[in-house]
Amino acid sequence: MDAASRRSLLTLTIVYGSESLRLSEFTPLTPLDELTSALHDTFNISPRSQKLLYKGKRKPASPKSPRDENASSMTLADVGITSDIKITLLGTPDSEVQKLQRQADLAARRQAARRAAAKSNGSLSASGGGIATLTDEDTQYTFLNLRTLPGFADDGKARDLLARLRDDVGVRAVMKKHKWKVGWLTELHPNERTILGFNRNMGQEISLRLRTDDLDGFRHYDAIRKVLLHELTHMVHSEHDENFHALNRQLNKECADLDWTQKGRSLAPTGPIYRGTSSGEDDPLEVDSGGYAGGTFVLGGSTSASEVPVRELVGRAAMLRLSKEEQDMVDGCGSSKDSGSGSGR
């Protein structure tokens, strides 16, 4: 990038829910912190709670945690934000976070009364959430680190749930077969009420919604595992096209077939899945919210429809007819947006 380009003003479009904000006061050399501070002033979302999704995200060279620890010194150019880019902002306003924290505190007090004698020898982290790291050479294709949310009295249960997903016989078999290794498997904060999970940078981090909206329990294990398989599909395909759905269905079948502990039980998309907020509103969910540094996929090449055999056309049409559960997971996925994908913070 030449000197003139680095000094030129960027034109950015920020989308948050139904709101759209156009910014043109930043240059490629503007610190990322200035942009997140401006978004805090406008939307009342703390910079630590912001997640920016856009195409062209540059992956840190050696991530040590799910959050980039050097973000404060990065410029917009460093993280791949260029002019005429559309950025989707995810996050919860500070007032809503405080309300949810009060609910969490109440739920924690109720759970603490039920679990007074359950605190075991050092299995819970007092302040930073439960973290576990795998070093066994026999588990090369797996999730290398686990991280739960801090501040919950039952973070031990959340860590156990992440460990159960990591060690799930079917999931491990799928990851070994496809030679997939994911840096972090993390718990997604329940204040992201429209998101069930995301895959950041095709395996840097997969984050999953574990808790119910009332913070008083956890979602069903099978539902969480299906979201995990959805996010693992994003290791290959960024867009929710027919290639994505074919692989996702394949992974669900493989997970069932390769799990010797659950023979005869199918993970194929059937039955209900978690739907939105506890208020009963039928709001759309996003299953992935994280982002990729990935390309796009073109289906069918230059072949015209008239040249495709009827049987193949029928097969394609069947592939595009998603079950209700599959559509729910697509709607609740934050790893792919119609504007592209990528993750800022």
Keywords summarizing the entry:
about 350 residues, alpha/beta, 5-stranded mixed β-sheet, 4-stranded mixed β-sheet, 9 helices, disordered C terminus
Average residue-wise pLDDT: 74
Radius of gyration: 21 Å
- Low-confidence spans: 59-67, 120-128, 264-286, 288-306, 337-345
Question: Which range best describes the helical content: under 10%, 10-25%, 25-40%, 40-55%, 55-70% or over 70%?
Answer: 25-40%
Topology as a string of helices (H) and strands (E): HEEHEEHEEHHEEEHHHH
Shape: globular
Q: Going across the major beta sheet, what is the strand order?
A: 5-6-7-9-8
Number of helices: 9
Report the span from N to C terminus.
23 Å
* SS elements, strand count: 9
Strand content: 5-15%
Alpha-beta classification: alpha/beta
Major pleated sheet: 5 strands, mixed
